[in-house]
Design a protein that fits this description.
Elements lengths: L1 H26 L14 H15 L3 H14 L28 H14 L6 H17 L31 H9 L5 H8 L6 E3 L17 H10 L9 E3 L12 H7 L6 H4 L5 H12 L1 H15 L24
Antiparallel strand pairs: 1-2
Helix pairs in contact: 1-12, 2-4, 2-5, 3-5, 7-11, 7-12, 9-11
The structure holds protoporphyrin IX containing FE and 2-acetamido-2-deoxy-beta-D-glucopyranose (3 copies).
Protoporphyrin IX containing FE binds next to helix 3, helix 7 and strand 1.
Keywords: Calcium, Disulfide bond, Glycoprotein, Heme, Hydrogen peroxide, Iron, Metal-binding, Oxidoreductase, Peroxidase, Secreted, Signal
GO biological process, one term: response to oxidative stress
Catalytic activity: 2 a phenolic donor + H2O2 = 2 a phenolic radical donor + 2 H2O
Length: 325
Amino acid sequence: MAMATSACQALLLFMAFAAAVLMSTASGTLQYNFYSSTCPNAEQAVRDATTMIISDDPTMGAALVRLFFHDCFVRGCDASILLDQSNSNPQPEKLAIPLRGYSAVDAIKAAVEAVCPGVVSCADILAYAARDSAMVSGGFSFPMPGGRRDGAASNLTDIFGSLPAPNMQVQALVQSFANKGLSAGDLVALSGAHSFGVTHCSFVTPRLYPAADPTLNATYAAALEQACPQGGAGGTVLNNNNFSDPNRLSNQYYRNLAAGEVLFTSDQTLTTDATTNKMAQDNAADPVGWMARFAGSMVKMGGIQVLTGHQGEIRRVCSATNSGS
Ligand code: HEM
Ligand SMILES: *[C@@H]1O[C@H](CO)[C@@H](O)[C@H](O)[C@H]1NC(C)=O
Ligand SMILES: *[C@@H]1O[C@H](CO)[C@@H](O)[C@H](O)[C@H]1NC(C)=O
Ligand SMILES: *[C@@H]1O[C@H](CO)[C@@H](O)[C@H](O)[C@H]1NC(C)=O
């Protein structure tokens, strides 16, 4: 059993690496082992800090993966999601959508600054921490290229039109991902992140009232109505995955999808298109294949509109630009 698992993981490492090398050749900007000469322990420091954070709070893996998605989809992977309000950024992205994990990112950044001050960008820290969350919470690892630099701007109006919404149908989701250079396969593979973490009732009640969405399994809908009563507190939190460990990143999501037991329209709609439904079925049937696809898609997402070379800066703290203004 242990041997079979490690053989799978070794294979996966190779497959993800092969996929990732192709991505980086195509974009030609980010590099593997980017900090090998400037901060050889950078990736290890992120991994150690991330592992400790998730062992203290097993829900943090999901928070870090979602932060990376929101960073990359809005203005590219430039750590704009991490900036606090300031004179030059009076309405930063983070005011628009409440996300978890900011203090975890600060702790990881502090651990990296302790080994190499001023060298590793917050955008790379988010990418490595998301990769390591998959390792801790999903049991698979893959190389993630580095070299992203941190942007100076964060503007909540950039959210609209950049991030997909949970009431979207499959065509709109495919278009939203295409706008970022990602494919339908990336959409389906990355949606597997909804196997872990938490969701507020407010995102689910539109599918329950006045009448339950008929694409929900009726038993599941009844359980959701119990957990999220009409007119109840929208802030109540549900586990994304009620059928196995909600802190486990896995292909269970695709089995839930086939059973009508997923939280959002944007999840369930993936079964309504023949192409995306086939991809979802393949991911349900082949856990290692899904891991490799998820890994490749995370690397691809991590290349969206990155700042490199002399663009941007390396922030000293992730919540503010170095000028602090
Ligand atoms: C396809 C379009 C997507 C939509 C419409 C969407 C929407 C949402 C919504 C509404 C929530 C609940 C937020 C809350 O209640 O606070 C959520 C949670 C989450 N999403 Fe997505 N998402 C999408 C894609 C992704 C992708 C690509 C990833 C990462 C690869 C991702 C990772 C997560 C995670 C991990 C959570 C749980 C966060 C936590 O525990 O704090 N999502 N998503
Ligand atoms: C944010 O974006 C809006 C819309 O593009 C723009 O009007 C506004 O000036 C921007 N804010 C900052 C501080 O750049
Ligand atoms: C809905 O889920 C319940 C409980 O898991 C299961 O017994 C039932 O067969 C499902 N119904 C459909 C239509 O899939
Ligand atoms: C989640 O699982 C628990 C225990 O199996 C069950 O009592 C609850 O109704 C489920 N909630 C939802 C929303 O499916």
